[in-house]
Amino acid sequence: MQEGDLLELKDLNVLRGSREVLKDVNFKLNYGEIVVLVGDNGSGKSTFIESCAGIVPFKNGELYFYEDEDSQNVIRNHEGRKSNIPKIGITLQKDGICGEETVEERILIASEKSSKNYDSDKLGQILSDWGLNHRKSDRVSLLSGGLKRRLSVICGLAPAILSPKPMTVLLDEPSVGLDKSARILFINWIRTLASRGHGIIIATHNNDVIKCADRIIKIEKKGKIKESIGKSEGVIVEMPTCNSSSNLTSIRHLTSWALKMEIRNPIDTVGRVTPALVALLLSFSIIEGNGPLSVDILSSLILLPAFITCIISPAIINRFNEAECGKWWHIMLGSKIRPISSFLGASMILPIPLTYLSWFILIGNKSDEYSYDTLFWLWLPPLSLITVGMASSALHFLVSDLRRSNSSAGSLLLIALIWPFLELSDALSILMTSGMSYSLSIQSPIIGCIIASVSSILIWIVVVYLPDY
Amino acid sequence: MVVTKGASLLFIIIGLVGASISILLGFLWVPSLDPSTVNGPESFRIIYWHVSFAWCSFLAFLLLFIGSIIWYLKKDEIGWRFFSVGSDMGLLFGMGVITSGPIWGSVAWGKPWDWGDLRLNSFALLTSVALFLVLARRAQQDTNQTRDTLSIVGLFGFSLVPITAMATTWYQKQHPPIIVVSSEETGLPSDMLFVLILSFISFCFIFVGFSIITDRIHQLELKMENNQKNLDEGWLN
């Protein structure tokens, strides 16, 4: 078996509010070692696991992952996240699985295999051993609590099972919700994984799991840790193996995951279209009831439905919030998660068709009264609104970092987006009255759209890059 | 604690008395403006409070900005105290600015709100950010992660000021503002200036008094929370 360290926490100090949850922690995880974390409720076990995953801010200290004996990779220090972690297996306390996913999809994503290159027999065997093979096409939301927990545990173990190279496995309270037979199976599997060189850290209160530890770390009062030798129980059993290495979880995985979730349950599209249509109908009744309106107001009303679709909170945030699913993706993608999520969460498709719909409903057969160019160039302001959608999505993601994000008035931060909207309304009103102009003057609709896009992109950059800088 | 409470109350009482005197002087002593230059010269007297509200909210937002920077860079408790006081005071005085501003705006511009006015819009944005921060701080558990996120929102609020400046400059070029008041680049009459300064000093007293009380409340809340956590963990015997 390979010798040396897989990860190291050096002089770690982590705060929760003003209280130091972990204090001066120095810890190394060796190849083939099972380390069990014990301690009272709230002592900092989950914080320890999340520190190893690199998603908790450090007051002091560093987290290193070792690729081999010579190369150490700083993942996080007191300044923030420095680089992405290598492949790991992780089971979070709250599963980290969105209810819309199927069992098979989740295990594929967790084991970082694409559906093209994975060996269905091996995954099928893993699922069969854990009594889940007959549910592999079911959505996770249909599983009972116990089955969901089993899936969550398998997803933590699968990357190591199917990896030819030793890796780190982090398991937070894996035995909660598992019955006796599943617990025994779990203990034997982690012993087998350790025999293959994988390093495993488990936070638990369960005595059976504690007995399988090679090393026990107790998190004591005031965040200090105390180490002792464990009993190293557990039996080595037969488990699937894999000789081909898989790719790291990438932006492509998240994109395809987000698309699948939306196609399966289009709450994002419905959630955006409904208020936009209500706004459109209200605008129609205002126009019908009040006679001809000025072009400025008319242009704002035409763009209003598209603007509303852009500033609505994206459904991907709710999916991320479900059972800490977002935390799982954060661990896997590191600082890339924020820009890519805000991009995926932005309303990309709806603004242009909604603006054309708005034009036909609000202007209808009076389009002759406006410039001939308008209908041809009507796509330009809503195209620029897509950048407003990205800025809005990034702001919603920033607020979702708060633990109780639903209880925060995040919409207050969206007021800044009024300027791009005003600029675009102006651009459309100029287009309607004077037609398209290709000059570089402020009165040109193109320049108005560029100004609106630049100010939205500036907001997006500030919100996306400041938190991880 | 008693000394802090007494001092802060004294500051607030002096401030409230001074602010009341200044608005009374504004109505009774300072001469009226030429009715031909403004519509409704009496409502113009709101400036004796509006300007003081604006200056004090500027102080509060400055405190919020400094606090956000210190917390963001150093994770220092003093930064968080500045941040907390700055957001509370920013909300209080910012609300004063954006409620008194439209009264003055109706007179000066002929409309209560001007999307092309930089100061008005910056204050409105910063006040909405302060409102968000106050609501979020009360709703969230006080962890480092919460503090990090909120300090970033504080910095985001300030990054909006140049964006607002840019947007309003462009917007003004397209829409020349409606100015009802004929512009005169002359200084203020000395009696008006006196009342303005008296009002500002009074508001500063209110600002300091409320800041002391707010900070004290935050410190006590923190202490109580720590004691509760200690009790949860059975550390107090």
Q: Number of DSSP strands of chain A?
A: 11
Widest sheet, order of strands of chain A: 7-8-9-3-10-11
- Give the SSE string of chain A: EEEHEEEEHHHEHEHEEHHHHHHHHHHH
- Portion in strands of chain B: under 5%
Given as residue ranges, the uncertain stretches of chain B (5+ residues, pLDDT < 50) are 176-186
Radius of gyration of chain B: 21 Å
The tally of helices of chain A reads 17
Can you count the helices of chain B?
Answer: 6
Main beta sheet of chain A, described? 6 strands, mixed
CATH domain class name of the largest domain in chain A? Alpha Beta
Using the 3D structure, state the CATH architecture of the largest domain in chain A.
Answer: 3-Layer(aba) Sandwich
- H/E element order of chain B: HHHHHH
Silhouette of chain B = flat
CATH topology of the largest domain in chain A: the name is Rossmann fold
Structural class by helix and strand composition of chain B: mainly alpha
The domain count of chain A comes to 2
Low-confidence stretches of chain A: none
- Please state roughly what percent of the residues of chain A sit in beta strands, choosing from under 5%, 5-15%, 15-25%, 25-35%, 35-45% or over 45%: 5-15%
Task: Tell me what the structure shows.
The complex is a heterodimer of chains A (469) and B (237). Chain A has 469 residues and is α/β, with parallel strands linked by helices. Chain A is 47% helix and 14% strand. With 237 residues, chain B is an all-alpha fold. Helices cover 77% and strands 0% of the residues of chain B. In chain B, helix 4 (118-139) runs antiparallel to helix 5 (144-174). The model of chain B is unreliable at 176-186 (pLDDT under 50). Chains A and B meet through strand 1, helix 16 and helix 17 of A and helix 4, helix 5 and helix 6 of B.
